[in-house]
Structure formats: structure tokens, C-alpha cells
Amino acid sequence: MTATTELVEFDDAVARFDPVVGLEVHVELSTRTKMFCGCEHSFAAPPNSQVCPVCLGLPGALPVLNGAAVESAVRIGLALNCEIAPYGRFARKNYFYPDMPKNFQTSQYDEPIAHDGWLDVELDDGEVVRVGIERAHMEEDTGKSTHVGGSTGRIHGAEYSLVDYNRAGIPLIEIVTRPVLGTGPRVAEVARAYVATLRDLLRSLGVSEVRMERGNLRCDANVSLRPSPDAPLGTRTETKNVNSLRSVERAVRYEVQRQAALLTAGGTVTQETRHWHEDTGVTTSGRPKSDADDYRYFPEPDLVPVEPDAEWVESLRASLPEPPAARHRRLQGEWGLADAEMRDVVNAGALDLVEATVAAGAAPAAARKWWMGELSRRAKADGVELGDLAVTPGQVAELQGLVDSGRLTDSLARQVLDGVLAGEGAPEQVATARGLEVVSDDSALGDAVDRAIAANPDVAAKVRDGKVQAAGALIGAVMKEMRGQADAARVRELVLERLGA
Amino acid sequence: MSTSRDLTRLGAAQMAEEMAAGDVSSVELVEAALARIDAVDGSAEAGVHAFLHVAADEALAVARSVDEARAAGEPLPALAGVPVAVKDVVATRGMPTTVGSRILEGWVPPYDATLVERLRAARTPLLGKTNMDEFAMGSSTEHSAYGPTRNPWDLERIPGGSGGGSAAAVAAYEAPLAVGTDTGGSIRQPAAVTGTVGVKPTYGGVSRYGLVALASSLDQAGPCARSVLDAALLHAAMGGHDPRDSTSLAGRAPDVVAAARDGATGDLAGVRVGLVRELGGEGYQAGVQARFAEAVDVLREAGAEVVEVSAPHFRYALAAYYLILPSEASSNLAKFDAMRYGLRVGDGDPQATAEAVMSATREAGFGDEVKRRIVLGTYALSAGYYDAYYGSAQKVRTLVQRDFAAAFERADVLVSPTAPTTAFRFGDKLDDPMAMYLNDVATIPANLAGVPGMSLPSGLADEDGLPAGIQLLAPAQADDRLYRVGAALEARLLDRWGGPLLDRAPALGSFPRRDLTTTGAPA
């Protein structure tokens, strides 16, 4: 084995082979408590501060199923067009793992709560790919190990390891696709779009924070190549825990190129898990994975069967929110935005913000301009999410209202926004407190106009002679003196009036 | 107040009555129990050795608080002030819990099992933790890592298992009540061979939260006592629905105490008793059979109608049990990996891997029987064998449940001898696991089906003068039926014997008891 692998160009690879991708996405549910105990779970709590005998797997402790997690699972299943199993049991998946307190994971095996569904995925050019969903099942998360002392952050070479069990027992839903066939050169794009679409769907359901960088949503990408679409599926690799949309696309592309290189050279692909390296953009070998991993599954005797009531399932189905894709289409029509404009709003995660701003009274175009322009710029500069800025959609609408009524100019409005973001209050308050409103008091403006005329006799003379366009210089001087807080149209009227033009 | 009486001879119901009447205090009862433990319990080398840990100070503190509350006229629960011993498989906050295993030596749980919480709420002084076969695997308490418990009837003999410590503590008058757990007969079989009463409630009748699991689908905590009424009092105090155990039964538990009082009149007119054809005959000791036949006659005398019922699939129950139990146990015991609590061996070597430490710890911490069953269970669950072993065993389990359902169509309760033989001598079956397993042949079907079972003394076998037991079985959630029929049978047998069977046990000598260390590592 060489350290670096010669790759085949992606276009060549997909010309020579038919790529097949399958995706397994783990979603951490944002239930208040864990899957099988009453411990709360929140990101960034001090290590091992959210644990109890149950999630620590202490001898004698027993699990009790979280009803809210079951509800989330059913809603996810329904949103993915799945069948909901009327009866199911949890199973124990027996294996050793340093951060798994019981040394078995309570999961669903042959009886997933949701199965046989699909998700339509729209690509950038509008093409829709239907991805088959094999199953969505419930399980608990494991704890988290931190390996200290080594250079790679992995266990090999580490001096010691720290284990945080806060994450142990957090409810997970694992969503498994069927092999996605026939995507050819768009395989990586489809993989990315699937995860993005799924993320939007889960966000609309309100069941998860779906923040990939926090591990709320983790994607394993299975990739295989075959000589032609008629051939049986090739040997696959499973690239684990890819944690951004961009990485999903890059990792799939890389695996296609790597496997194509191996196969072209007459080699074979090893069935194994692989690690994705964000920094170098490559995958490396993990552990060999056969289909016969013996987890010694058997029904979890500590839990009673899960039997979702049919009427309850129907009531959940009836209360599902509008699917994101349909919502995008509807809002785009209502707002009259171009495709590219709408895509930018969605990709920036600004859809809810724009919608709320419109709902608060702003025109759609203005609402979009604020969030995609000034506010996006500031969020980027501060390194925060758009939604985390210290301004509400209602305040943005109010700000635009002040502009619309002529009380603020665009540039004054930006200064008011400074005050709002600095926590000085609502736009109206900030404008008053900072004295930023447009001055429309004629006597104050008149004085400024007189001073401008006195200071620029040559210009004044030209205007008096009928060269009205020369008035611009006088208006500019007034605006400068008023530090922008004047209504330019009114200033123009006053200038022309004074000069009798 | 009389000081010449032996307070340890009082039953739990009588203790409660006398405390209520002001004739005795809880402190006196606890002191008497502690003195008796001191005198007869001894150590792994000699004596009954029923206790792995004695919580003298805590028990006395609870007793004092009960006495003060009573003096202040506060209303108190039925068993307040009555001392109780708890099998060491039950998690007790602040009190060592070893499960009879080296692997948990010194482990002090940070929480109480639900049944312990309830006993504390019932204000029963907890005397300490009783000995058991390691991880409740065994039928003789010889598999305890801390040395065997001895049968008070004959210290050369086993007290039954795995709950031999609890049964022996009750039989030796060290405690009026003890908590046991029954996975395949571990309450009933020790009761039979020590001449006491033991009940396995309906599965889910007493919470499993805090019981160190052996086989989750079979484990059931229950009472050990010297009378049916006493057993009912303890059953009622610790039973009932627990939201922390999903498999715990919801709804109102049957009133077992009322049933026991009701049954004491001895009238069983209209009750149909089913004799299980498959639980008797070959393999059963003659004296055990004879006492059983007499007890059945007594049931007839009491007015019961006796019919014979057949349970054809019981013959496969033992085999199914010895696949299901190790399968679940292999998974339940996986957590004992030396990393978080209990024993750790081999980490002195800085180069040692986690796997090496885990392996060395398990080698040192688990006894042979535990290792045997982990290997069996791992094999039975493994891919390619699952259907042949675990899957088939589950099918047998369903057939056993159907046998029970059919039998209960014809009879209100079923009866059989509890164990095939009286107490055997130490070592007799230690090298023959199959012979040991056969001891539970009559008790196992109830665990597979989740139905309740009771063992009470049927008399002394002619050939060895040792106690034999009769087992009563009832449909799920009809535990009260066991107590009604059991109390009636008990009343008539006591009349016949002219007093409790245990009065005929030989007096025990005095044995020096070694002090327990503060970590609870038993002597």
C-alpha cells in the first residue's frame, strides 16, 4: 500500500463506471430528555453532568422509553412517506465500545418503526431525483471519547482517553436509503442534495437542531462502483461521520475517484469503513466491515413492545407541516422572487427570517434585501448565524417601515440598525435616541440652504441663470451639513425656491 | 416487659402487632436480630454465613426513629420497625452490593432499587445483604465468591440457591423477613430446602429497577418468610407499579395480605387444585413425594377439589430456560468491564491495553459458573445459531405459556413438589452442572410463563428428616390466590404438626463472626 492513492479524474471515473450511493443519516432528536431516562441533554453541558444510573448503565438500572422520541420518529417516518409499523420491539445490539456504558446499544433491528418510504430531492437545475427510504429506526447515542496526547486525536498514539457520557442515551433516528441508482455523473451532487433536503425536512418538523457541525446530523456515505447499470452492485465502502454538506459531496466524489483508480488498475475494493479528512479532502481506511458482523441481536427484554395507535398516527399525519419543497415554491410565487434569489435565501437559512419579516409588514423584496444584504454581511463579519443576530424579523420590518414613511433614508436606517444590534432597543427608540431621523423642519433646512448659497455664489448664479442641474452641488452641501438627516427632495425644492429658478 | 422471651422467634406480623401494642420496641427487635446474627452467622469458614454485609448502625438508627415516631403517635406503615434482610443482588444506596461476585467487590451503589426505596418508606430497618450464588447462577449458594451459606437444618448441607442467604437468614431466625429474587426458582427452591415460605410474584409484580440483572425476562423479586402472612406483608410493602420499570404491571395489585388472612380459616371449598402430572414421579425423592401426597390430601380435607392436569411442554422448559437465561445474561453481564466500577485487574502495567485489563479482570472476577453461562449465551445468540437455539427456546416458552393457560382452564391453582430432593450435601453436584440445573425443573416453568409461584413447607422427608416443599402456582396477576390457598394449607398443616416445622430444626451452636471491612468486603 502506498500512502497516497492515484486518483482517476471524476469525469473519467463516472464515464467508465456506474456509481451507486447509499446514505445512512443519524439524527439527534431535540427531545427534552434522553431516549431511556429522564436526563436532560444540551450541547456544551460540562462533561458527565447530565447522567444518571440508567444512561450510565449502572448495574440494576432499567430503561424506560421516551414517548416524545417515539412521536418524533413517527412524524419523521410519515414525512418520509414511510409505512409506520403497528408493532415493534427494541433489540440489543451487543458489541464493545469504550463509550457505550452497557456494552450493548438499545436499537431497533428487524422491526424499525418506519420503513419503505421515499424523499424527492430537487437538484440545482430543477431536476428531481426520488430517493428510496429503506427504513428509519430509533436508537440511543453513545458517549463521546476524547483521546488526549496523540497527534491525530485518534486513540492510537494517545496517552489517555476521556469519556463524556452526556451524549450517551440521546435519542437518535437512523434513516437509511435504498441504493440510489442511475445518478451517473451527478452522484455526489445527489448525495449532497439528499442530505440538504432531509435536513430542511427535519428542521421543518422541529424534531432536531440538525446542526451538522454539532453532530446533530451525521452522515455515513456508502459508495460502490459497477461496470454498467446492468451489473450487480459492486463492493462498497462506508465513509463515516461526514459532517457538512460540502463534505458529503467531496467525500462521495473522492470515493468514486479512488475506487475507479483501484478497479482500473485491476485491483479490488475492500469492504470497510473509511474516515473522511476535511483538511486534506481524502478518505482513509478504517476497520474492515463484513456483512456478518455478529452483534448477537435479540429482543430487548427490559422494554415492552412499541405499539403506535393507528388513530394517533393518523392525527400526526394530519398535523405534518407543509413539506419544505412545496413551501419554497409557494413562497417564491407569493414573493415574486427569481429562482436564484430564492435559492440564495434558502441556502442562507434565511427563509424563516424573511417570511417572518414579510409577515410583520415588510415588502418581500425589502425583507429579502435586508437579510441577504446588510444582515448577512454583518453575520459573516461577526462569525455568527444569521438567526443569531440580535435583531428580530419584527424589528427589521419596523426599520423598513421607517424608510418607507420617509423618516429614515437607507443610510440612516443602517445607522439605526447599528443601535439595534448593540442592544439599544427597537428601531424607533434608537432613531429617537441617536437623533437620526430625517429633518423636515423647513426653518432648519432653510437656514442650511441659505448658508450653502452664501458659501457657493458661483453655483447659485448658474442656477439663477436657469442651469437647474447645477443645484445638485448645493443640495449635496446641505445634505453634508445635515449629516444625511435631510429629505433630499425637500432640500431641492427649497434651493430652487430661494434662487427663484 | 419480659426479657426472657426470644424475640427472634416472632414472625413479622406478630412483631408489628406487639410494637403497636407497646409490648416491644423496634430497637429491641433489631438488637435481638443483630445478636442472633452475631451468634450464628459466623463466616465463610463456619456458621450459617447468610450475610455478606451487616448494616447494624443503619438498622438501629431506623429502629430508633420508628420507636420515636410511634411514641409521638405518628401513623406508621404496617411493617414499620420490622427488620428485613435483602439479597445482595439488590442495589442499596450506601450499602455494598456485590451480587456474590468478586467483580463487584466493594461496589457501593449511588442509588436504591425501587423495592429498597419502598422498604425504606415502609420504615423497615434493613439488617444487611444476604449471600447468594454469584450473579444468581446456581441452586446451592456454593457458587458465591465469598463462600457458601449453610443450611440451618444441617450445616453440612446446602441452603438452596441462588437465594440461599435469604432463606437461611429467615430459617436461622436471623431475620423475620428477607427479600429474594427468583429467575428459575431461586426463592422457592431455597424455601423448600430450609422449611420456609418463599414467593415468586407475577412477573412485573415487584419492580426490577435496581436488581442487578441476571436474565431480564425471567428475574422477579419476592419475599422469604416463615409464614404465608408474613410473606404477604413483605410482598405488599415492596410490590406495585413502578414507572421506572417498563415491564412493571400497571393497575392495582391484588391484596395479598387480605388473601392470606382470609385463607387462614382453612376453608378451601369450591377451589379446584390441579396436580401437574409432569412435575413428579421419576427423579423425585420418595420422602418429598410422600409429604407432597399428604399435603394434597390436606387440601382435599379443606374442601378443595383435586384434578390432574397435564402440561406436556414442561419437559422442554429446562432446556429452553438454559438457553434463554445465558443468552440474556451474556448481554447483561457485558457491562462488567473493569472500566467504571468494581474490580480492576492488570492496569499496573502502563503498556496494558484496555482489552488486556478487561480480560484479566473478568478472568479474576467471574467464577466458573458465570463464565460457563456467558460462553453458552454468547454462542446461543451468535449469527447462524440464533434460530436453532434462542429462537427455538422462545417457541418453547410460548408452548409452556399455553400449557399453563390450558391447565388454568381446569384448575384455580396448580401444585407440585417444589424441588425434587431435600437439601443435598456440599459438593455433591458441584462438578455436575446438569444435576444442579435439574433442581429447578419444577420451578422454571413459572418463570418462563411469568406466573406467580409459592413454596411452603410440606413436612420432613422420612429418609433424612429434612424439609420438603410444596409449590403452588396461579395464573398471572392472581397472586392473591396463592396466598389464600397457601394460608389455608399452612393452617391445617400446623394443626397436624402441632406447631411450626422450623421448631424441629436442631439448635445452632455459636460461631465467631469476623468483622466486615468498611468497604463491605465480606469475611
Automatic annotation (TrEMBL), chain A:
Where are the residues of the annotated region Disordered? 265-294
Which keywords has UniProt assigned to this entry? ATP-binding, Ligase, Nucleotide-binding, Protein biosynthesis
Binding partners and assembly: Heterotrimer of A, B and C subunits.
Concerning PANTHER family, the annotation shows:
GLUTAMYL-TRNA GLN AMIDOTRANSFERASE SUBUNIT B MITOCHONDRIAL AND PROKARYOTIC PET112-RELATED, GLUTAMYL-TRNA(GLN) AMIDOTRANSFERASE SUBUNIT B, MITOCHONDRIAL
Class in the EC hierarchy, top level: ligase
Give the protein name, as stated in the record. Aspartyl/glutamyl-tRNA(Asn/Gln) amidotransferase subunit B
Record flagged with keyword Nucleus = no
Quote the PROSITE patterns the UniProt record gives. Answer: GATB
HAMAP family hit by this protein:
GatB
Function field: Allows the formation of correctly charged Asn-tRNA(Asn) or Gln-tRNA(Gln) through the transamidation of misacylated Asp-tRNA(Asn) or Glu-tRNA(Gln) in organisms which lack either or both of asparaginyl-tRNA or glutaminyl-tRNA synthetases. The reaction takes place in the presence of glutamine and ATP through an activated phospho-Asp-tRNA(Asn) or phospho-Glu-tRNA(Gln).
The scientific name of the source species is Aquipuribacter nitratireducens
Residue stretches making up the Asn/Gln amidotransferase domain: 352-499
UniProt record similarity statement = Belongs to the GatB/GatE family. GatB subfamily.
Q: Does the keyword Protein biosynthesis apply?
A: yes
Q: Which reaction does it catalyse?
A: L-glutamyl-tRNA(Gln) + L-glutamine + ATP + H2O = L-glutaminyl-tRNA(Gln) + L-glutamate + ADP + phosphate + H(+); L-aspartyl-tRNA(Asn) + L-glutamine + ATP + H2O = L-asparaginyl-tRNA(Asn) + L-glutamate + ADP + phosphate + 2 H(+)
* EC nos: 6.3.5.-
Automatic annotation (TrEMBL), chain B:
Residue intervals of the Amidase domain: 28-482
UniProt keyword Nucleotide-binding present:
yes
Keyword ATP-binding found: yes
Which key words are in the record? ATP-binding, Ligase, Nucleotide-binding, Protein biosynthesis
- Catalysed reactions, semicolon-separated: L-glutamyl-tRNA(Gln) + L-glutamine + ATP + H2O = L-glutaminyl-tRNA(Gln) + L-glutamate + ADP + phosphate + H(+)
Question: What Pfam families does the record point to?
Answer: Amidase
Active-site residues (renumbered): 87 (charge relay system), 162 (charge relay system), 186 (acyl-ester intermediate)
Oligomer and partners: Heterotrimer of A, B and C subunits.
What's the protein called, per UniProt?
Answer: Glutamyl-tRNA(Gln) amidotransferase subunit A
Question: From what organism does this protein derive?
Answer: Aquipuribacter nitratireducens
Tell me the classification of the organism that encodes this protein: Bacteria, Bacillati, Actinomycetota, Actinomycetes, Micrococcales
What gene name is listed for this protein?
Answer: gatA
